[in-house]
Every structure is written in structure tokens, then in C-alpha cells.
């Protein structure tokens, strides 16, 4: 039971982080979406063997984490979850290219995965899914896509809550201290029925409140000077490290000085 409660807390962690009042939290969600998108495009666009050029891209998550006061350990833990799949692809590539070039591609793939996943988590943790949905709609993303994204996210929370309720109810009635395989099918069936009823009740509540398939974003998102400055500064930095080898430049400077 404690594991299920822990899982629910892990899911809600990003929602809790998004309620912060830091400078990054107050940045326009449209701006944060655009900056994150440009950042990811720049990261994945670099050649597979240019590992050293990925180093300057770490500055973005470091600054965002520092200014948003988000605990770094839980973020890194969630980032690591995606690594086994990436490591599997990287090892397959190493089997094909058993040389330095293959190793560089493997390291590049690993670093790119860490940077892209971490930047996406930071976007959610500093913006919140509701504001991300508003930003996507303002950017003219199809409403059906945004609606499905929000419904899926909310349904995962409902799914986990009902699973905790079902398991807790069984454990309170059982003296075995766990779930017996003999009753697992019955518990699972009741669980899906509870989830279905809960989802239907939520949908009926939405209908009673005037839901007609449209996603209402409320008041219009406004821009401030800090939003424009945030966007311009990061675009300039991304373009700079994308088209110029900053690491090599500093190596040359240090070589001249020494």
C-alpha cells in the first residue's frame, strides 16, 4: 500500500511544484513552451559525435532549477526513469559500431536524452498542465489534441487513486497482509468498474457545468517585459551554442593565456 501512495505522490510532485511563486513560475507559459521547444530542437539537431558541444546546453536546466527553487533530486530521479530504454538503443548501436565513433554516438544519445527529458519535466514543474494547455491553445495547437492530453493526464491520477482505494479496502478486510492471487482477478474487475464509474461521473459533472467539447482557457494570457527578455536572451544563447563551438573557443582562449 505504501508503494501505491508513494507512486501517487510521485505523480503529484510536478503539480505541487507548479504552484510555486518564483520568477520562472511567473513567466508566460507560451514563452516557456517556445523556449523549451527551441531548446529541444537545438539539442537533438547536433551531430551524434559532437559530445563536447552538448556541454553548454546544461546551463539552461541549471539556471531554471536555481531560479525556480525546485528540488533537484526528484527531478533527476524522474529523468533516470527514461534512461533504460535509451541505454538499450545505445548498446545496440555499440554492437554495430565497435569503435570510438560508436561510443561518441552512445554518449551523445545519453546526454541528449537527459537534457530533453529534464527540460520537459522543468516545463511541467514550473508551469503546470493547465497553463501548458492554455499555452498550447494560444499557439494554435488543435483543441482535440490539447483536450486529449489533459484528459489522459487527469485520468492517470484517477486511475492511481482508485487503485489505492481498491487495494486499501482489500487489505483492511484481509488477514493475509497482502493480495492473494486467488482474489486478484476479482479485485482487478472491481477496480476497473470503479474507474469507469468515476470517469462517467466526472464527465456528467463536466456536462452539467456546460462542457461542450471545447477547451475553455479562461482569461487571455498577457505578456510582460520579463517574458520578452526571457525569450530573447535564451534564443540568442541557443543560437550561439548551436552554431559556434563555445567549448573549443574557450579552450583556445585558455591556451593563449597559458
UniProtKB/TrEMBL annotation:
Pfam name, any one: CbiQ
Key words, A-Z: Cell membrane, Membrane, Transmembrane, Transmembrane helix
Keyword presence, Cell membrane: yes
Signal peptide span: none
GO cellular component: plasma membrane
Main location: membrane
Membrane topology: Multi-pass membrane protein
Membrane-crossing residue ranges in chain numbering: 30-48, 54-72, 79-96, 102-125, 137-159, 228-250
Cell compartment(s), UniProt: Membrane
Entry annotated with the keyword Membrane: yes
Designated name of the protein: Cobalt ABC transporter, inner membrane subunit CbiQ
Organism name: Caloramator australicus RC3
Lineage of the species this protein comes from: Bacteria, Bacillati, Bacillota, Clostridia, Eubacteriales
Amino acid at each position: 500500500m505504501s508503494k501505491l501512495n508513494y507512486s501517487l505522490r510521485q505523480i503529484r510532485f510536478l503539480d505541487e511544484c507548479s504552484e510555486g511563486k518564483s520568477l520562472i513560475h511567473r513567466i508566460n507559459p507560451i514563452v516557456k513552451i517556445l523556449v523549451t521547444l527551441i531548446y529541444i530542437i537545438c539539442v537533438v539537431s547536433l551531430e551524434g559525435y559532437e559530445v563536447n558541444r552538448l556541454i553548454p546546453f546544461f546551463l539552461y536546466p541549471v539556471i531554471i532549477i536555481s531560479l525556480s527553487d525546485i528540488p533537484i533530486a526528484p527531478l533527476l530521479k524522474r529523468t533516470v526513469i527514461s534512461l533504460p530504454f535509451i541505454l538499450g538503443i545505445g548498446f545496440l548501436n555499440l554492437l554495430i559500431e565497435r569503435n570510438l565513433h560508436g561510443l561518441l554516438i552512445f554518449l551523445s544519445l545519453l546526454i541528449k536524452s537527459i537534457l530533453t527529458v529534464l527540460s520537459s519535466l522543468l516545463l511541467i514543474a514550473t508551469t503546470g498542465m493547465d497553463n501548458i494547455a492554455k499555452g498550447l491553445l494560444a499557439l494554435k495547437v488543435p483543441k482535440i489534441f490539447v483536450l486529449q492530453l489533459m484528459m489522459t493526464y487527469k485520468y492517470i491520477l484517477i486511475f492511481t487513486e482508485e487503485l489505492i482505494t481498491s487495494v486499501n479496502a482489500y487489505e483492511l478486510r484481509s488477514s493475509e497482509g497482502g493480495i492473494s492471487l486467488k482474489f486478484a482477478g476479482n479485485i482487478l474487475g472491481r477496480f476497473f468498474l470503479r474507474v469507469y464509474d468515476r470517469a462517467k461521473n466526472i464527465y456528467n459533472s463536466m456536462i452539467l457545468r456546460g462542457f461542450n467539447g471545447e477547451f475553455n482557457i479562461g482569461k487571455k494570457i498577457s505578456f510582460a517585459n520579463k517574458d520578452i527578455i526571457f525569450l530573447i536572451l535564451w534564443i540568442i544563447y541557443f543560437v550561439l551554442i548551436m552554431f559556434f563551438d563555445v567549448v573549443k573557443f574557450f579552450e583556445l582562449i585558455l591556451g593563449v593565456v597559458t
